[in-house]
Amino acid sequence: MGLGKTLTLLSLIALDKGAGDGTKKKGKKKRKIESGSGESSATLVVCPPSVFSTWILQLEEHTVPGSLRTCMYYGDKRAKNAEELMDYDLVLTTYSTLSMEEDVADSPVKKVVWRRIILDEAHIIKNSNARQSKMVISLNAKSRWAVTGTPIQNGSLDLFSLMAFLHFEPFSIKSYWRSLVQRPLNQGLQSGLSRLQVLMAAISLRRTKDNGLLGLPPKTIETQYVELYSEERELYDRVKEEATLLMRSFNNGTNNFPVVLSMLLRLRQICTDLALCPSDLAMTFRSTNLEDVSNNPQLLQKLVEMLQDGEDFECPICISPSADMVITRCAHIFCRVCILKSLQSSKSRCPLCRQALSESDLFSAPIESSKADSTASSSSSSDKKLSSKASALINFLKESREQNPAAKSVVFSQFRKLLVLLEAPLKEAGFNTLRIDGSMTAKQRANVIDQFQGTKGDGPTVLLASLRASGAGINLTAATTVYFMEPWWNPAVEEQAMDRIHRIGQKEAVKIVRLVAQDSIEEKILMLQEKKKELARETFRKRGSDAGGMSYKI
């Protein structure tokens, strides 16, 4: 991450056009469209909304104005027909936009045979069964690029989606992937890993920061273990014991996924700040079987509220976080838009368990005003005792300020509420802060980033950032220190976040500090992270090389 992938591909597009490959013959184009498809010289770039600004900025900085005709294809800005799209050199769209058009037969994007398709942050399509994945796989193009700094998010199966998008046979065929790679890997056979290493060496272009070509300053990562305060430890042990008993009562934990997830979420929140938990926490685990939960609207609403507290939930249909979640009668959770659209096209059945489902079987939590939440949390935070982690964070920030008063830091958390809670004590400690989270529009986030990147002496020195809203596709090189308030299940997400700071443009050494609660579930998450990292390292290590070979490094 941060080594110029966007600029590299933009250079390719510009060079390609300059070489004359983009010459259009309008008569030919018209005939092609009438027959159902149009061959184009345009490049389609698919990316998350947060990365739009990066592409626009690179265009403005590194191309002659007007040399590449660019079109935004999302929301109300979508072209009505394929011919209009083909008048551009570069078309920018989002994964969610394409997801919505997966079932639209006359989608203009489907009718174009693109010069090339570029998936930016391509790991987003890690689930090959998701609508957005199916859509990009089905598009027509002469060339395909899957671009990401973290191709493996959870396991080797993540790579299958990239193979499917690239149409790289036979690995793009799921049965072959399972027999040649996935099954041998699961069985611990060397053949599976060897095949994966040969495959990735053959089709991937890869550049790491340790090669020293760009002269980036060093990055150090340290884990600071925090001992929970007595009241935090007491509640953690009590909830852990009750959760353990409840999980043992389940015959099959998979069928009770929402309940299990909610219990793990509460344990993680206790490790970070008790204020993240509801006052009636004991009620969370009062029900001991799934049937009670699925038939109790009050408990369903409470469950959705709990999941809304965390930003690591992904809708199984669009594989994206959503602020507007609903839970079904059969206890599965989706984005509201996704499940309503799915029910219209799937004979009213749950996409996961195939049980009969109607709109009356969907439950949602009350929508809270983020502004009211912010005001209430900020006003009450000054009256309560700081959590063990918040105290540790402020101490670290004070030490950093003593060494360099102008030094800037980014504090990442999965929980938006925590970011709000931290604002008041940081202000009391004399820090000028900014906040960026998922409740803000793209324009608001861009304004915050501009303020933080500014060079004014009295400007903000601490950015409180949501891991989901600002963990990818943005530039925060004004900072030199990063704090993670809690570990994330997926190490690739953390790597993406820390490399918002350690990237091209960074002039100072970067320090990463991870705050981890001692003797807690967070230590188990670190162990899980290491297993995922090892798989990624092995995947990109040349077959037969030693530890000094082409390895996946952070």
TrEMBL record:
Residues 315-354 form the RING-type domain. Keywords: ATP-binding, Helicase, Hydrolase, Metal-binding, Nucleotide-binding, Signal, Zinc, Zinc-finger. Gene3D superfamilies: P-loop containing nucleotide triphosphate hydrolases, Tandem AAA-ATPase domain, Zinc/RING finger domain, C3HC4 (zinc finger). It comes from the Eukaryota. Residues 1-169 form the Helicase ATP-binding domain. Residues 1-20 form the signal peptide. Residues 392-554 form the Helicase C-terminal domain. Belongs to the SNF2/RAD54 helicase family. RAD16 subfamily. This is SWI/SNF-related matrix-associated actin-dependent regulator of chromatin subfamily A member 3-like 1. The lineage of its organism: Eukaryota, Viridiplantae, Streptophyta, Embryophyta, Tracheophyta.
